[in-house]
Structure formats: C-alpha cells, structure tokens
C-alpha cells in the first residue's frame, strides 16, 4: 500500500490539517515512459516566436501547438512533460512556479480542500500548517516520544500473523499491515484503540473515497457543469467525508469532555492539536509492505539474503527496533527498490502558479501539470535493468528517497514533499523487517502456480488489483 493510503480525515472546530502525500493513482497498466501530453500523443517541437508583430488572427495561428490554449469556463489541458533522470526535473528548477496542487472537484466536498495542507496553494496558511506539522507532529522529539507506540503496533501485527501461522492459514499482507497502521494512528492520536468495527468502517470509507476521488469526473473537465454534479461524485464523496468526520469527532468530544473534567493530559497528538485548535491526518504503509512482500516472494534468494542480514544484526529478538534500521543496509535497499518500482504517488498533480518554460515547452499559469514519477523511477538512463527488482543497486550508493536525488522521488521533492515521510520511513522498515525475521513465507498453491499478480489499480492511492495472500511459518 502506498505511504499515503489510507489517510485519516480528522476534524476539530472546523479546522482540518491533512498530512498525507498526494495519495496516489492506481494503474491497471503502467504509465508510459514516453513524454506525452494530454490529450495528444506527442507534442511537436516548441515553435520560435515570430520576429515581427503579426495581425491578431495570425497571432492565434502562430501560437505553438504544444501549448494548451485556454478557453473560457474550461480548464487548461494537463501537461505531462518528459524528463531525463540525469537532469534535475521541474520540481527542482521551477519548484516555486509549479508548487500549487491540482485538485479535483470531488475533493471540495464539505469544504475539505479549504483547510487541507494537501490541497492548499503555497500561501501563508499552507506554510503555517507545514511548520506546525514539522514542529509538533514529525519533529525528532515527537517521533522519539511516540516510538513505543510504533513498536506496539508492529508487535500487534506479528501476533496477528502468528495466529495465522499456527493455523497454517494464508495472510492478506496488505490488509494486515493496514490494520496495524490504523492501530498505530489510533494510539498515537487518541492513546486508545479504535473498536474493530469502527476501524473496519474507517478502512472501507477511505478505500472507497480513494477510488472515487481518482475516477473520471466530468466536473473536472467542464467546470461550468460542476455545480450540477452530473455524476453525483461530489455528493458521494461528501457522504464519505461526513462519516469520517463523525468517527473522528466522537474521539475528539470524549477528550474535550475529559479535559473539562480535569483529567490528566495524555500528551498524545490529540492533546497537541487541541491546544492549537487543529488536527492531523496520516497515511499508512500497507501498499509498500504488500509490494515488497510480493517482490520478495518472486525472488526467494533476495528474501533469504535479507533474512540472513536480519538474523545477524537483530539476533534472537522477535522484532526489530528503530535503532536497528541504520545497521541493516540490505533492508534499506529492499525498501528503496520497492519504492522505485511502486511509488506511492506515480503521477502527482501540480498546477502552475506562473507561466514557466520547462524543457522548451511554455506552460501557462493555471495549467495542470503531472510529473511522471513512475517513468523517472524506471528511466534507463539512470538505472541498469530499470524494470527488474534488484536491491543490490542501492548497496554502497548514497541515493535515497528524501527528495534530494531526483532519479528516486517516490514521495515528491521540494515544497510539496510528503510531510509524513519521517514517520513512514520508520514504519515500513519496522513492519517489513519484523515480518521477515519472525516468519518464513510461501505462496498458496494456486498463486504459486499462476504467479503473483503485481498489477496496480487506479485510485487516489495505489493498491494491488489482486490482494497478496501468503502463508507464514513461524521460525523457531
């Protein structure tokens, strides 16, 4: 699952701070690595401006064909510029000019986008929310304080898998990781576990909202018809958002009443956000865990090599600790390679804040810009055998996914880099490492016969078309 699926929408006093990365499209077929521009297949070379002024009618004809011509009451066409991974992309060179986020009509349901750090343009309010998140939610001090909660979440995941191993039953890897991440969010935010039925409902709501938000919507292409909501997408999204708010508001009301009654502070994220009249959301790592397991099950030698490293470093411990991560270079390489092949946000949507020229193409202000991270991560100029799962490529390499190496930017770069990246980094290593040090994994007979289906489906967040199921065997 992608680092940014599923996210939790939390609302307090009509303020919402959403700390998800742009949570992702799902593909049945991978995006083309060829530079493209919608709606045409390929753009002609940029035209040179005329040497002398032209009559008005001639000026219109002389405009470069690759520039989408704006029309009244219609959005400018989306542009997907090509990219050479050896050359810093638009995210670096023109970071300030394309830092706005392109959002669909469905995300405007219930005013969600008006106070979300995901959707807001890079103005004063957005900067204030980013500073708040960096200082109070994902600072080194806050992450250190919540470290025991992450360890307990991983321990719960291991116990759940152990129960399946005792019965010889296959595990839905993505679903199990998802449940563990929801438990972490609940304990981190509320110092309590969600009721299983509530957690299941929240998971279903987020999954449905993810698919709904990323689906085709006529309102996104014909804004003049948006008010009519012809497909009912915004109405359905509003219902989902209201349900999510209701779940979260129940937790908030309980805490407000307990504080009013003089109960001691718990110093969790809910107390921090109540102090500031704001709240936060988060994203899970389940898609990344699922994809990593799928790739490893198809490369048993790689899995054995990783398990040998874990055994030599962690020893007899039942799960790894955050302090072990820096001592596990092969585990880090496996995570990097998984994120390279399965980026959480393969086509993050941006919007040009000003007219800018990128690789010879003029992008007018207001143009919707899609950065093809999927293609960048598989660029043959940057990677040997780019479509092959090969963690060894990162051993001895300083390349990482923190936004500085532009051939590997699964979480974006620049101003819009994922705010929750420090937390996601810890959780994916803890979960994956603990699942591999405690269990041997095999495929069910039918899956082994037909092969692992790694196709990903479209949505606001990525997920596998066919959920990965694997049989754990406890290592004694």
Automatic annotation (TrEMBL):
Gene3D superfamilies the record matches: Cytochrome P450
Signal sequence annotation: 1-25
Required cofactor(s): heme
Record-linked Pfam families: p450
Ranges of Basic residues composition bias in the record: 57-80
Domain of life: Eukaryota
Region entry Disordered, spans: 29-94
Compositional bias of kind Low complexity: 34-45
Entry annotated with the keyword Signal: yes
Entry GO MF terms: heme binding; iron ion binding; monooxygenase activity; oxidoreductase activity, acting on paired donors, with incorporation or reduction of molecular oxygen
Positions with a binding annotation for heme: 418
InterPro entries xref list: Cyt_P450, Cyt_P450_CS, Cyt_P450_E_grp-I, Cyt_P450_sf
Keywords annotated in UniProt: Heme, Iron, Metal-binding, Monooxygenase, Oxidoreductase, Signal
Family per record: Belongs to the cytochrome P450 family.
The protein's name: Cytochrome P450
Phylogenetic placement of the source organism: Eukaryota, Viridiplantae, Streptophyta, Embryophyta, Tracheophyta
């Amino acid at each position: 699952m992608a680092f940014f699926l599923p996210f939790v929408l939390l609302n307090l006093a009509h303020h919402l701070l959403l700390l998800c990365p742009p949570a992702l499209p799902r593909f049945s077929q991978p995006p083309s690595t060829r530079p493209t521009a919608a709606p045409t297949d390929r753009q002609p070379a940029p035209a040179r401006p005329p040497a002398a002024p032209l009559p008005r009618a001639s000026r219109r004809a002389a405009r470069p064909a690759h520039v989408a011509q704006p029309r009244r009451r219609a959005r400018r066409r989306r542009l997907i510029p090509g990219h050479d991974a050896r050359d810093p992309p638009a995210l670096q060179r023109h970071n300030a000019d394309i830092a706005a986020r392109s959002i669909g009509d469905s995300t405007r349901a219930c005013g969600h986008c008006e106070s979300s750090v995901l959707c807001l343009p890079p103005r004063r309010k957005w900067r204030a929310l980013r500073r708040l998140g960096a200082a109070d939610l994902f600072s080194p001090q806050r992450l250190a304080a919540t470290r025991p909660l992450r360890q307990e979440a991983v321990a719960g995941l291991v116990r759940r898998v152990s129960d399946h191993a005792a019965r010889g039953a296959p595990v839905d890897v993505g679903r199990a990781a998802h449940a563990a991440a929801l438990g972490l969010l609940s304990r981190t935010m509320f110092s309590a576990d969600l009721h299983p039925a509530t957690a299941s409902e929240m998971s279903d709501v987020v999954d449905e909202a993810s698919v709904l938000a990323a689906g085709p919507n006529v309102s996104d292409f014909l804004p003049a018809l948006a008010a009519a909501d012809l497909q009912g997408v915004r109405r359905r999204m509003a219902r989902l958002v209201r349900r999510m708010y209701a779940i979260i508001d129940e937790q908030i009301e309980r805490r407000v009443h307990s504080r009013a009654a003089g109960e001691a502070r718990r110093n969790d994220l809910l107390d921090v956000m109540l102090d500031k009249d704001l709240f936060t959301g988060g994203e899970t790592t389940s898609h990344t865990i699922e994809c990593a397991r799928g790739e490893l099950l198809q490369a048993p030698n790689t899995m054995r090599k990783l398990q040998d490293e874990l055994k030599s470093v962690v020893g007899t411990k039942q799960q790894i600790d955050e302090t072990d991560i820096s001592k596990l270079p092969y585990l880090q390489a496996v995570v990097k390679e998984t994120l390279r092949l399965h980026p959480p946000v393969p086509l993050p949507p941006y919007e040009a804040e000003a007219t800018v020229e990128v690789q010879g193409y003029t992008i007018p202000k207001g143009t919707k810009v899609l950065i093809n991270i999927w293609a960048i991560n598989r660029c043959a100029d940057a990677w040997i055998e780019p479509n092959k799962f090969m963690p060894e490529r990162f051993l001895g390499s300083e390349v990482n996914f923190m936004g500085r190496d532009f051939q590997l930017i699964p979480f974006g770069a620049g101003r819009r880099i994922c705010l929750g990246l420090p937390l996601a980094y810890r959780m994916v290593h803890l979960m994956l490492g603990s699942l591999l040090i405690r269990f041997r994994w095999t495929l069910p007979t039918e899956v082994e016969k037909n092969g692992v289906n790694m196709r990903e489906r479209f949505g606001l967040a990525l997920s596998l078309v066919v959920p990965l199921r694997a049989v754990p065997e406890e290592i004694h």
